[in-house]
Prior knowledge:
20 helices, alpha/beta, binds pyridoxal-5'-phosphate, 17% strand, 481 residues, seven-stranded mixed sheet
Amino acid sequence: xxxxxxxxxxxxxxxxxxxxLLRTEAAVELRQRIGASRLTSLARSVADEMxxxxxxxxxxxxxxxxxxxxxxxxxxxxxxxxxxxxxxQRVINATGVILHTNLGRAPLSxxxxxxxxxxxxxxxxEYDPATGSRGRRGARVETLLMELTGAADALVVxxxxxxxxxxLSVLAKDGETLVSRGELVEIGGDFRVPDVMANSGTxxxxxxxxxxxxxDDYRHAIxxxxxxxxxxxQSNYRIVGFTTSPTLSELAILAREARLILFEDAGSGALFDxxxxxxGDEPVIRDSIAQGADVVSFSGDKLLGAPQAGLIVGKREIxxxxxxxxxxxxxxxxxxxxxxxxxxxxxxxxGVALNDxxxxxxxxxxxxEIDRRAHSLVQRASRxxxxxxxxxxLMKGESAVGGGSGxxxxxxxxxxxxxxxxLPAAEVQARLRSLSPPVIARIADGKVxxxxxxxxxxxxxxxxxxxxxxxxxxxxxxxxx
Length: 481
Ligand SMILES: *Cc1c(COP(=O)(O)O)cnc(C)c1O
């Protein structure tokens, strides 16, 4: 046999067993942190990985027992750290995308955060302390929704997809639902209008064309199987140019004549006109109700700035049918969601939402204010970073709304561009991501870009610190210890 084969055999014999690895001092400490069974399976993976690397020749060098043990322990530590870091943890969102679905969509207001803490123990979820008897779950949230939208009744489910599913299942199952070909939208991969129709057991009847759908297209498609006219907000795309579609009021008149239900899936929706924030084409839920929609669904964690939820408002007899259906029980929300939603809706009721709901506050942030904050942050960081290989510069750019809202709205912003003399942008981005809390940045034209629109002023010191850690190349990263 050849030399390398012998070296490999020696190395394989010197490789510590899983048991040996688990008996090390380091393993005893790691076991406290992640538990015995997880540690054992990680130790197995490390041993398998090392064996495979020796066999493939990837891991060579002096295969001493001692050396391999040290390396195995280091890898076990790294694996544990990676595991701990895979928990849900706070991040600094420096992407400038306000509703970042991967980063948890809407950040909650202080009021909503406090409400979650308050409700997390025993609470008055279905209890009325005034009478000592059972109270109705979600009653206050429903009342607030009715007041804020002018609807006669309201109901809350898990998300807008669940709302559409419940509405179509209860109102249109085994019948037909008409929808314009221009509204067959897909929201982020797993919400597609045709699929929701199919899952709800209603037959989707497409009317009109992609760019032009007339009232008569709906009228001519109505049969005695038709149950629902559905209007879907296009959300994340727009059709521009030679287009037409009936107004909601026209659809409402047709629905009434034909004794059908008009359902609008408003997507994000807004509780007041966001024209000034550049979002004039988001449906205002109060207007949809006033124009005659029988039932409207919208998301809690998009422009509303609340937790994930699907909000349903509409006519009493329709919403009550949804409430009494057995599916509702499977789709309803928990106490933490209700508490946070209630606190958020109260901010709207009190007229302080523009200032107190983070999503709206970030949307309304003036470019001059962001510019001032960016200048001051760069100054602070530069002072600390005088000896680094970093160059921080300011440049004009655009933020984004995200979350399937306002695809053509690009709020003006000032970006901080981060360039490292020795490291490519992707490496700088990865290092920012590896910090605790991770800093999430975007890359454009080979530069790492930070947008303070989505960074809370209270996070700026952490951001300066993060830049310093990444800028000083000698700083060990947390998982390299
Ligand atoms: C976003 C959106 C949905 C899905 O909402 P979730 O709350 O994420 O389930 C459904 N319909 C429309 C039109 C949307 O914009």
